[in-house]
From TrEMBL:
PANTHER family in the cross-refs: GLYCOSYLTRANSFERASE, PROTEIN O-LINKED-MANNOSE BETA-1,4-N-ACETYLGLUCOSAMINYLTRANSFERASE 2
Protein source organism: Jatropha curcas (Barbados nut)
Record membrane topology: Single-pass type II membrane protein
Matches recorded under Pfam families: Glyco_transf_61 (PF04577)
Protein name as it appears in the record: Glycosyltransferase 61 catalytic domain-containing protein
Compartment(s) where it occurs, according to its Swiss-Prot or TrEMBL record: Golgi apparatus membrane
Domain Glycosyltransferase 61 catalytic: 276-355
Secretion signal, residue range per the UniProt entry: 1-25
GO cellular component entries: Golgi membrane
Amino acid sequence: MSPFCLSIFLLTIFVALFTLFQIQSLHTTTSPSFSPLIHRWQKLTTCNQEIKSLSEKLKESVTFLPLKDLRYQDKALQGHTWFMSSMYDTQEEGGVQYQQFPSNSSNFRILCLKGNDTHDGSWNSYALAWPETLPSNATLMKGLTFVSYNHYNYDNIWHGLSAIVPFVAWHIRNGCENPNRWVLYHWGELRFQMGAWLRNLTGATFGGEEPNVERFEWANKNDPICFEKAVVMRHNEGGMSRERRIETYDLLRCKARVSCNVSLLQRVNEKGLPLIGMTLFMRTGPRSFKNESAVIGIFEKECAKVEGCKLMVAYSNNLTFCEQVKLMGMTDILVSPHGAQLTNMFLMDRNSSVMEFFPKGWLKLAGVGQFVYHWIASWSGMRHQGAWRDPTGDHCPFGEDDRRCMSFYKGGKIGFNETYFSEWARNVLTEVKTRKLEEVKNNSAASTSSCACG
Ligand SMILES: *[C@@H]1O[C@H](CO)[C@@H](O)[C@H](O)[C@H]1NC(C)=O
Ligand SMILES: *[C@@H]1O[C@H](CO)[C@@H](O)[C@H](O)[C@H]1NC(C)=O
Ligand SMILES: *[C@@H]1O[C@H](CO)[C@@H](O)[C@H](O)[C@H]1NC(C)=O
Ligand SMILES: *[C@@H]1O[C@H](CO)[C@@H](O)[C@H](O)[C@H]1NC(C)=O
Ligand SMILES: *[C@@H]1O[C@H](CO)[C@@H](O)[C@H](O)[C@H]1NC(C)=O
Ligand SMILES: *[C@@H]1O[C@H](CO)[C@@H](O)[C@H](O)[C@H]1NC(C)=O
Ligand SMILES: *[C@@H]1O[C@H](CO)[C@@H](O)[C@H](O)[C@H]1NC(C)=O
Ligand SMILES: *[C@@H]1O[C@H](CO)[C@@H](O)[C@H](O)[C@H]1NC(C)=O
Ligand SMILES: *[C@@H]1O[C@H](CO)[C@@H](O)[C@H](O)[C@H]1NC(C)=O
Ligand SMILES: *[C@@H]1O[C@H](CO)[C@@H](O)[C@H](O)[C@H]1NC(C)=O
């Protein structure tokens, strides 16, 4: 209420009391003070109308802008990005880049969204509004809403994980608050599904149930939907410090193990020697090993030479989420071709090892994306023990370094080099055994039984 309106209000109360007093005193004739009173009353009514008309104006001044801003098409992922491009992110030292509504930076306005287009994000739109003056026909959704921007998709486990990691980081630093719902976008287009693995991981992390992905089926196409509290992420883990990433993956691992009932105890044999799990995590189809039995044989042989070593062979395509969590909990050395299944590595104990395999041609032609499993190893506190790159493979008619060759190499299969694999396995096994012996001696192996968030 403005000072003017407030003074009118107080004056009115005073005048009302005074009038009552006058009536009580049986001054039934019109007192000289009565005509200014009418005057003030009229002024108050005008004031109310003024407020009403101002709030009408505020409601109507809520301006919706396209979620996908085509002006920034060539800088889709930089700075304010092309998604909600008029907004700037908040970032605390080493933390995630995020937007929160309402907040200081939004002038305590809340986020409203409009549209359910699944093909063109420039048809969906966003706006900020004060909770007291929401645009007309708006629906207010209570609780906390996570709004995710994903440049790729929510099915691939690597891209899906990248999208939820920043929310987990926010959750840790904000009293472990769980979302009531998720709104998923890809290029500003709505998405209604997470892949099964991601659904399970998200459910395990934020309260045990499957994440509630909003579909807006109930809403009229042109009506705004506003959110009591919303957190928006569009930069994945970009800008996070190593410690904050490790803290985030620690929570994901811990929550996944708790929800899958995986024991968190240190693993030693009857003699008190550490058990070493070596897992061959196989693919079928593209980037699988040409001769699996030969590869299995090589690692089996080296594993058998180390006391406490146990070799496991698994296929990523037919394990449930909890089977993967369990398997990774028993794995100290993950041996696997380049591919999304390697994303599971963060589910191993910290400091575990990864050995990666590529088909021919990838180093020169596959671009920077081929190093994602080096990155996630570093972010989640694992040791990437290097990669083997097959020197032989499919023939490309354009010459080995031609970019067109990637289509020949992309789905290539992976051979083996017995000498190289044996020596590599031996070295990694020795290193892991030394570390685990020391951990047993120090009694320092990761064996926490409760997670950072409840
Ligand atoms: C909001 O901003 C004001 C001044 O800019 C500052 O004093 C206050 O601490 C901020 N509040 C929060 C919650 O950040
Ligand atoms: C609000 O909804 C009513 C009824 O559906 C409709 O007639 C009206 O045009 C809507 N107002 C706005 C601003 O969309
Ligand atoms: C994992 O997802 C599948 C498929 O959505 C579901 O049936 C299963 O209950 C989930 N498991 C957990 C532990 O959430
Ligand atoms: C989008 O909104 C329209 C109109 O309300 C509705 O008929 C349709 O089912 C919605 N589409 C999706 C994908 O939810
Ligand atoms: C974990 O154990 C609890 C209680 O023993 C049980 O209710 C739950 O179904 C188990 N979950 C899984 C994924 O096995
Ligand atoms: C796979 O490798 C083993 C051992 O080197 C060899 O005996 C076998 O013939 C190979 N299998 C195929 C299909 O090439
Ligand atoms: C899993 O898939 C692999 C490869 O397709 C197959 O060899 C194996 O038998 C399957 N395992 C189960 C338990 O279905
Ligand atoms: C991982 O290794 C480093 C260096 O050896 C050690 O300081 C750290 O405690 C280990 N972390 C865990 C969780 O074992
Ligand atoms: C296999 O690896 C060994 C050891 O790194 C190397 O000397 C040899 O040239 C490799 N053989 C082939 C066929 O690439
Ligand atoms: C074990 O303790 C020693 C001495 O405190 C330390 O130097 C070493 O890094 C520790 N090793 C592990 C694996 O925690």
